[in-house]
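ok new one. same drill as before - structure tokens go in, u give me an amino acid for every spot. 366 of them this time. try not to just spam alanines like last time pls lmao
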């Protein structure tokens, strides 16, 4: 739709109305002076951050988001929180927020609103009619816990979506491996568990890569960090890959450090109960403020979209995973690393009494 501006009759103002779709692909490559997004809390973060905001760059345009609140896990909420705090970011961009509960409208039927409160319950009524952001829904991890764990670590750099750091002597590392290939990703997470607050210091993520290449990549990472423990998904293809990975770890580690201890690749069998224990351990670390990680976009997105998905058949146990068609590979790799990480610095090898031998690199299952 094109309109003539009332103050500038010779100019033309274009108003474009488009749907973003799931990934915003149809909006890419455009620019805008102003973007208005309705029900922004329900638009995927990827569309808001990676498609719409870059469209304003050329013109320095305005970004207007309107929505009913939908929990505290979206970019919409984070922008709202930034606005009400009066924050001005490093680029000098200012934010403003306005909150209008339905009850402020004098033309609405109060009796009807009260009946809606009885019908919907206090929580949903507060969200849908009082415009309150609540920690509700199927979220497994609380937003406050996710945010509190974000800490800059000078040892860690970001490159091509990976988190990279140089292994340091005397540190105690734990590594988690979650396998994937075509649809899912293979993710390797390295946690430094030396201090009371464990830190994510390494993160790698691959897709559509052959198993042979993945095994060599994982073996190189394990050999470099010489971890205290390595724990990987042993379900399905993971059990088949474990033997090959252990041999690759043994070969690569001995080429770097002849006669040194070789980490044993342990497998984790996923069941409803074991996955619950795995995720509970990660959640406990987050809520106790004993885990820190850099502000990695995909990691944060996966943590926020990790949900209870309803009961699993007759057992009644709640299933957990990524909402919609999202991924949870980073969450699971991080959970595996946290699960096998010691709560405190482990006893040095020199002071241990070792029974038996691990020279053969035999793996253990958990």
């Amino acid at each position: 739709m094109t309109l003539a501006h009332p103050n500038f009759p010779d100019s033309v103002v274009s108003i474009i109305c488009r749907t973003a779709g799931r990934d915003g692909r149809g909006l890419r490559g455009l620019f805008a002076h102003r973007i208005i997004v309705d029900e922004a809390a329900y638009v995927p973060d990827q569309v808001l951050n990676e498609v719409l905001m870059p469209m304003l760059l050329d013109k320095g345009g305005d970004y207007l988001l309107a929505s009913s609140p939908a929990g505290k896990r979206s970019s919409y909420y984070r922008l709202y929180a930034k606005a009400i705090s009066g924050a001005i970011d490093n680029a000098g961009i200012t934010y403003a927020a306005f909150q209008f509960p339905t009850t402020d409208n004098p033309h609405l039927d109060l009796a009807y609103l009260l009946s809606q409160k009885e019908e919907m319950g206090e929580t949903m009524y507060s969200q849908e009619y009082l415009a309150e952001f609540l920690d509700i829904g199927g979220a497994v991890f609380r937003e406050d816990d996710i945010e509190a764990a974000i800490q800059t670590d000078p040892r860690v750099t970001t490159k091509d979506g990976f988190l990279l750091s140089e292994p340091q002597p005397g540190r105690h590392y734990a590594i988690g491996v979650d396998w994937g290939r075509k649809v899912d990703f293979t993710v390797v997470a390295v946690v430094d568990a030396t201090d009371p607050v464990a830190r994510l210091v390494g993160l790698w993520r691959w897709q559509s890569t052959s198993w042979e290449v993945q095994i060599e990549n994982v073996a190189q990472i394990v050999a470099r960090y010489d971890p205290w423990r390595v724990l990987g998904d042993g379900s399905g293809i993971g059990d088949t890959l474990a033997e090959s990975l252990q041999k690759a770890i043994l070969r690569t580690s001995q080429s770097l450090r002849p006669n040194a201890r070789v980490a044993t690749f342990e497998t984790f069998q996923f069941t409803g109960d074991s996955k619950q224990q795995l995720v509970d351990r990660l959640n406990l670390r987050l809520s106790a403020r004993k885990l820190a990680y850099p502000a990695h976009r995909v990691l944060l997105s996966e943590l926020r979209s990790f949900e209870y998905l309803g009961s699993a058949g007759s057992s009644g146990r709640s299933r957990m995973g990524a909402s919609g068609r999202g991924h949870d590979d980073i969450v699971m790799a991080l959970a595996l690393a946290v699960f096998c990480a010691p709560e405190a610095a482990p006893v040095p090898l020199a002071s241990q009494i070792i029974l038996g031998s691990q020279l053969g690199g035999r793996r253990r299952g958990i």
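The chain has ten helices and 14 strands. and btw The first helix runs from residue 45 to 55.
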